[in-house]
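quick one, 261 residues, struct below
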Amino acid sequence: MPDTPDTLAPGQRLNRLEDPVGDFPFYNGAPAPISGRQWLFVMAAVVLGFLMLILPIPWPGGVWGSMIPALLFPAIPLLALARVAPGHWTAIFGKVGGREIRLMFGFALLNLVVSMSVGTILNALTQVTSNAAIQQLGVKDTTAQVAFYVKTLPQLFGEEVVTLLPFLALMYLLTQRFRVGRRAAILGAWVISAAAFGLIHLPTYDWNLVQCLVVIGTARLMLTLPWILTKNIWVSTGAHIINDWSLFTFSLLGAALVGKA
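---
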C-alpha cells in the first residue's frame, strides 16, 4: 500500500490489531473517491467473478482447464476496481518483505489452531461435512495433484479479493452513509464479510449452514486479521495459501499412510 500521511485521530484504531500508520483505501475517498453506485458496480463484479468459478460452464478440458475460472475469479472484480479507481486500484496491495512473510506464516498457524479447535468442538456437537475436493486429492495422479495446487493460487487470491473488496464497500457504507465510527465500522465489516465468506462455501459443504458460518466464518475472521493489521492483500493471501496448502498436504500424507496400512 502506498505510503500516505496518517491523519487518524487517537482512538480510531483497533489498538494492537492495526499497524500504527496507514489506513484502508477507498472507503473515505482516499486515494480515490468511489461512489455508492460505483461500489455496487464493483460488488456486481465480485458476484460475476464468483459465478465464473461455480457455474457449470464448459471450459476447455484437461487437468489445466480449471485454471480459466480460477483466474477469472479475482480478475473480474479487480478489473471493476481499476475501472472505478483508475491508477489507484493497486492501493489494496503492499510490499512483501521479511516482516510480511513472517506474518503470513504466523497468521496461517493461528488460523490452523483456531479453526481446527472450533471444528473439533462442532464435530462433537453436530454432524459436519468434509470437503470433497480435498478428499479426492489423494486418489489423483501426480500431474492432477500439481495442477490442483497451482489452480488454488489464483483461486485463494480470488477468495481474498471477494472478501476484502466487500469489506471496503461495507466500510464505505457504514462510515459514509450510516455515520458509524471507524472502529465500529471495521468490526462490522470484519464480521459481515466473514459471514458472507462462510455462506459462499455452502455448496462445498453440502449446504451445512452451521458449519459454514461457525467453522469457515471463524477461519475467515482469522484470515482477515492480517489485512486489518497491514492493509496489504498479499499478507492475507499468503496466510490463506499457507493455511490451505498445509491442509491439502496433511490430507495427502494421511491418504498415503492409509494406503500403506
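The chain is about 65% helix and 0% strand.
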